[in-house]
Amino acid sequence: MVEKILSTIYWAGEDEEAPAEPHGSRSGRSLPALVRLYVYALHGCLCEVAFTAVWDWYDTRDRRLAGHSSLWALPMYATAIYLMESLRAWLLARRHLLPVRLAAYTLFIYLWELSWGVGLRLLGACPWDYSGFKYNLAEIRLLTDSEVAVQNGNVYLCL
Question: Which residue has the higher pLDDT, 64 or 136?
Fold first, then answer.
């Protein structure tokens, strides 16, 4: 969905006289990888800042909604969503049902964030700490039902 919108913007002016495509079809033209990585990095950070703003508001009722993130999130989100393109294509090619795809996306996201968290912790640079939460994995990843719902919401673009 995002790629289709960005493709329309990116390719604007080209093929002005080409006939409109049928609803739901893909043109075969894809945004260049660097453009997609850039957009995915910004999208991931925006989602994280929005999530942390709402989470902090829920805890403190601070109306400033001052969300936060880390610059480490840029490559983490960019590469995760970029790799999820291939995962999505692989799952769709095998005609897996939506619940299977959601489970695969959720597992991928959990493992991706856990691996980044472990790597960043080894460097002394891990920006998140879930040690204060009940169901944490190595104080780097939460394993709660609400977290699964949030992660599934983050992969709506991969459906």
Answer: 64
